[in-house]
Specification:
mainly alpha; 4 helices; about 60% helix; elongated; Ribbon-helix-helix protein, CopG family
Length: about 100
């Protein structure tokens, strides 16, 4: 029986294909001292360097997301008092547009 025709080979090819879609390979250029410190810390924690870097990135991104400065949204005052309308009410919207034209 040929290995090429086995369902096992198809399963493995599909598994490898999906794994490639889920993970991305990236090359990082790190200073030697930083890379060595990261490797040592990962080893001390009993995890891979990849897991260590992934965790560090997630922590940093989560931290920035929580403490990011909030930008105030712009507000507008109508030129004519009471001109605010419900945009879901298309008839009222057309009335305002017709009056302003």
């Amino acid at each position: 029986m040929s290995l090429r025709a086995t369902p096992w080979r198809q399963v493995m090819q599909t598994s490898v294909y999906w794994s490639m879609l889920i993970c991305m390979r990236t090359t990082l250029n790190l200073p030697d001292a930083l890379a060595q410190a990261a490797k040592q810390r990962a080893a001390a924690d009993g995890i891979t360097l990849t897991s260590f870097i992934e965790e560090a990135l997630r922590d940093r991104l989560d931290k920035e997301g929580l403490h990011a400065a909030r930008v105030p949204l712009p507000t507008f005052t109508p030129k004519t008092p009471g001109a605010l309308i419900d945009l879901d009410d298309k008839d009222a919207l057309w009335d305002i547009l017709d009056r302003s034209a």
